[in-house]
Structure formats: structure tokens, C-alpha cells
Amino acid sequence: MTFSEETIQGLVKEHYGLNVTVKALNGYDELNFLLSNEKNEKYILKVSNESHPFPFLEAQINIIQHLKKSNISDCFQHFSINKQGEELTKIIRDSKTYYIRILNFLEGTFWVDVKEKTSELHHNLGSFLGSMDHALHDFSHPAMHRSYTWDISRASEAGDNLKHILNHEKRRIAGYFLLQFDTEVVPEIHRLRHAYIHNDANDYNILVQGNRISGLIDFGDMVYTALVNNLAIACTYAMLDEEDPLTVAASIVAGYHKAYALQEKELDLLYYLIAGRLCISVTQSAYNASLDSNNEHHFITEKPAWNLLYKLIEINPIKAQDVFRKACGFTGLINNDDYSDLLEVRKKKIGRNLSIGYKDKLKIVKGALQYLYDDKGRTFVDCVNNPSHVGHCHPVVVRKMQKQIATLNTNTRYLNDAITEYAEKLTATLPEKLSVCYFVNSGSEANDLAIRMSRHFTKQKDIIVLDHAYHGTSTVAMEMSPYKFDSKGGSGKMPWIHKAINPDLYRGPYKYGDTKAGEKYAADVQRIIEDLKKEDKAPAVFICETLLGVGGQIPLPENYLKTAYDYVRAAGGVCIADEVQVGFGRIGDHFWGFELQNVVPDIVVLGKPIGNGHPLAAVIVTEEIADAFNNGLEYFNTFGGNPVSMTTGLAVLDVIQEEEMQKHALEVGNHLMNGLKGLMAKYPIISDVRGHGLFIGAEMVKDRTTMEPAVPEIDIVVEKMKANGYLLSTDGPLHNVLKIKPPMTFSKQNADEMVRLLDIALSEL
């Protein structure tokens, strides 16, 4: 619609008998004009088209007239009456109907332009909104019962526009909050109080004089919805660009509650409602960008909205609930429980040798991508949970799992598309000869099956492993894990297990800079083969992680696997690549760890990241091994390959590829290793930084010459980092290696903060 300033001037004269000057103003979905008369009195004229039908405009008049009877009446505009004695003036132009209305001009500074916002102002904003909503408790109008994009109760619909957010990290965060909205809010919102609300107390609609709210304009977004949504919107916009957004929101909540009492169940959803409003905002901006919109109002809060979403995901929702409850005088959710009761039950009912991390125990209650939330309101950056490969509660993975488990889960004796589709997509990431899949439930089970197949194929029993290796918790996996059988309580080495030297370029006999170190370490595999020959034996299998995990986060020296595989195959053995901790793009340079060594194993074992923490694992073999294993004895696994697991695996694989996580791991991993190497140059206690992508180890020693492990010191550092919100753990045969294997959503900002905090922790040793 086009109305020139001259046209508006004529319409005002014709219908209102006023002589005015006219200046066009910016508007979102209505035309706005500033009018001034000869006395320099100002008015706002609005022009609405068919998208604002007459009943809705009438409702705006009625709600303001209702508020004129309240004790905050001076905070709302009033309508000028036309020559017919009406608030609305109907105009027909080019066969289209428009409505004009003139409102008085309210004095004040827009919230967005107030430089110093005090806690008193925040409290007064809440008090003003509470007073308004209380005044409207007996108001109603049928036109406000409408389906409206900006109604927070409908935030789920914002999911339709997630695809327009092109940045992977941003789309993932918005998707996470919409998943939480569906999980936490949707089942409860129909139980909350509903009311007729303004629905848009944003930073361009609130006017301020001193510490007082002097006006609230623009009722064009009003709707019948959950009462608390009005508060949530005000909190959202007041939190933008604030250093401590939660404290700001708490002041507003306290002010609101004083004027109009809130309920605990409303407060408990407020964090998610604020996130919901932000998600509507950023998805609408992305949608408008996809249409090449040039309306600046479509993007006016996009940047601060994203900044707030990034801050919000770092705020533990339990902390937010606790703060909001206490702001209203209710009992908080957080207590100083020392978990003694829980620990006592655990001691009685759970296996005694299941350890718990950290000196002061953590009770983690929720996960959000690379973040973990405990029951005391603390947020932690997870630097070690590599099973949650694409992030805790990744929205795409969770939604696909939810849908499948609500549809079907059975064993694999029935035909199902998911298992074949997943097998095809998974093997497409591997060398052509690795083409047949067996799906199981854990890495331990996968290694167990891989050994069984190898022994069947070679008709041999002996296994070559690396010293300090770990391959799982089944009986067979424990037998081939020196990390377990050589440790306290271990059963010792079985006669058919043979330990090759750990190819450690830092602590081993062949060091960094030795260009033949790989071949020299592999010679120890050949030594074992020669010893077996003397007993008329041959190896059934050589199994090796493609980067060593509990062995100390160690990348293998160049040509190590190539040489070792040649020796083993020449002796008739099978080569297994254990990718349980390494695979799926984590190393950045390649999708699989064995690709770093330019080899193709006979069997690949997958676990941990394959299902993002869901119990799923796989053994992938050549046609030759699969055919030999098919000897008439059926292999059946009740849960291996079930539809939910297959759907989960597909979702994880899709997310890794669509969100370019391998590239992300390379960039962030290199950035983090550079930061850690900077600390190594500063602190002699860090003696080696090694790894690929987001598979990183930092070794700590008391003395770089003697290489004595800095064991009490590394434990102190881990506890200090935990106290500052970063969860690390230790690894290696001497327990002196910082293990860093975070979810792949771990960011450069997380890496910088982690290095900064490590710097402080090391300086305090």
C-alpha cells in the first residue's frame, strides 16, 4: 500500500478537520506517520490493510479503553475521534479497504535507547506489566482468539523455518531449544492461566522516563494465550545485550509478581518460554532473509537475539527456575545435598567397582550439545564425553529417535528398510572392500564378535594387541586389554594373548623426529609372529586402535599400521582396526583413523559415537570374511540392528555430514592444540601435546628430563577445571595425560576459554 505524506495530510483534514504537517515513520506491518498541529502537539497516525481486519482493530480500541480505567492509564495512547464520532476511519482505495486511526503521542525514551538501565527500572517494568495484566483479567474480545506466529505458545511451528538458518551451529542451538520447548512446555502450557495480552513489550514499544515506565505502544500483536507469555516477552527483550541476563529477568519477574502474583508452574517454564520467543525471532529473520527481504524491521533484533541464545544455553535451566522462584518468595529448587543418601543406595544396590568421577561428586540432570547441567544449577562444558559425538540431545537425532520409537521397535527377523539403508550409508564412508555389516549393542560386544570371526576365518587362536590397550568389558575383550588384565584385580595375560610395544613417540624407545619409528615399532609385531612360528602357531588377529585412547591419546607413527599389517597378513592373520573411540570424523583429517595410516583393515569395529550415546555398535568386514562366517551356525542378536538403533545411526551419520562436523573438528582441534602448545611453552609441566582433530592428549610431568609423571598435580588441575565449569579427565598408563575428546559441537570459544582456565590452574600449582 502506498500513502504519501500529502495524501495523509488531506485525509486528516477531510475526516478529522485537523491541519497538520506529516512525516512518514518506519513500521513493521502497518504504515506509520507522525502528525504535528499548529500548537506543536504530536500524534501518530496508523494505516492498516486487510491483514488487520476490522474486528481486530476494534479489539485494539476496546483493550485501550479498558486500560484507561486502570491506575496506569496515562501509559497508553488514546484515540482521536473522526467527524463521524468514530475511532476508526474506513478508506477505500483501488478497491481495497484500509483503516486509519490517530493516537496521541506519548513522551519518553524508547527502552532500546536507554543507556543505563537500573535494577529499579527492571523491577518497575515488571510491576507495570503485572499491573496491566491484572487490569485486563476481566477483559475479553473474540478477535484476539487467533492463530499468530508471534504467540510463544506456538513456538513449535518455528521449527518449519529452521532450514533457513544456514549456519550449522546456530541452527543446532535453535533446534535444541525448540526440542526443549516441545518437551518441557507443550505438555504443560494448556494447564497455565490464559489471558488477553499485549504480547509485544519489546525494546521499541516500551517508553521510559527516569526509572519509570511512561508508555507502552503498539497493540498489533495482542492475542489470547498463556498469561505468562506477556512476562516472557518483556524479559526476552530486556535481557538483550545484558552482561547478566538472568539477574535482569529476575528483577522483572519480582516486579511483576508484586503487582500480579505468579504461580510456580509459570515460573518453572519461563526459561523455556524466553528461549521459545528467541527461536521465533531468529527463525523469522532467517525466513525473511530467504525471501531477500530488505525491511530492516525483519532483522532489527537478529544479532542480539542470537547473542542471547548463546548465553541462554550456558545458563542451567534449573538455576533459572531457582532464581525465578526465589525472586517471587517461593522455595528454590537448589539445595546443598551432599548426596550421602544417594551414595548409600548406590553402594548397596549398584556394583561396587563402578567408579564415580571427581572428588566432589556431580549429579548431572540434563545435557545440551557440549554442555552438561547439574542439579545445583551449575553448567559444565563437556570435554570428555565422546560417545555424545554430535552433542547431548542433538535435536535432529532425538526427534528421529522419538518418532521411530513411537512407531516400531522389534528384533531383526522382519524386513525393515532402516537396517539396509543404514548399512549402505555406513559402508559408503569406508573402503570398497569393507562392505558387510553386523550390528550389535556396544563396542565390547563388537570387539568380541570381531575376534570370534577372525578366529573362525584363520582357524587360529592367538591375538596380538598393544601394551596398555583397552578393547572393552566382555570376557574376550578383557582378555585382550592389558589396561585391564595388568591392573589391580586383573586376571593377568592369557597364553594366547601377546603384547606388542606401545608405539609412543614421547615415552617409547623411538622418538619424535625418527623417520623410521613406525617401522621400528612394527618390528615388535614381527618378533611376536616369529616367536609363535617356533611353536607352530600363527596369529589369528592383530587388533589396534587407530589412535591409542587409554594408552595415552597417542597418534600412531607414520607407516606403523602399514608395516604391522603386512607382517600379520603374511603370517595368515586378520587385521582389525578398533575405531570405537576414534571414528566418525573426530580426527578431522579423515573420517576414519586408519586413513591416517593409508591402510585398509580386514575388519573395522565401531562403537561409542555411532549412536551418539545410544547403545549401538557395528562390525564391518570383507565379503570373504562374511562368507566364511556364514557356516551354518546362525548369528542372531536380539537388539542389534533394531529399527530404533538403525534410525539413530542414520540420524547421527546425516548430522555429521550435513553439519560438516569433520571439518569443524579439524579447525577447532587445530585451534585448541595451538592453544595447548602455547601453554606447553609457558609451563614445563606440560611436556607433550598430541592428537588429531578433537582427539587430543596433553602429557604432564614433574621433570621433562626424567619424565616423572605429574600425578597429584594433574588431578589438582582436573579438579580446578571442574570448579570453573570444564570437565576433563586423565588417561594413559601413568595416569598423567589430560584426555580431551569433547562432543563435536565443542566450539573455538569453548577452546579459548578452556586454555585460559588451564593457564590459571597451572599458574596456581
From TrEMBL:
Keyword Lyase found: yes
One GO MF term: pyridoxal phosphate binding
A Pfam entry, by short name: Aminotran_3
Name this polypeptide is given: Hydroxylysine kinase /5-phosphonooxy-L-lysine phospho-lyase apoenzyme
Keywords noted in UniProt: Kinase, Lyase, Pyridoxal phosphate, Transferase
Domain Aminoglycoside phosphotransferase: 26-260
Gene3D superfamilies: 3.90.1200.10, Aspartate Aminotransferase, domain 1, Type I PLP-dependent aspartate aminotransferase-like (Major domain)
Keyword Ribosomal protein carried by entry: no
PROSITE patterns: AA_TRANSFER_CLASS_3
Assigned protein family: Belongs to the class-III pyridoxal-phosphate-dependent aminotransferase family.
Superkingdom to which the source organism belongs: Bacteria
Cofactor dependency: pyridoxal 5'-phosphate
SUPFAM superfamilies from the UniProt entry: PLP-dependent transferases, Protein kinase-like (PK-like)
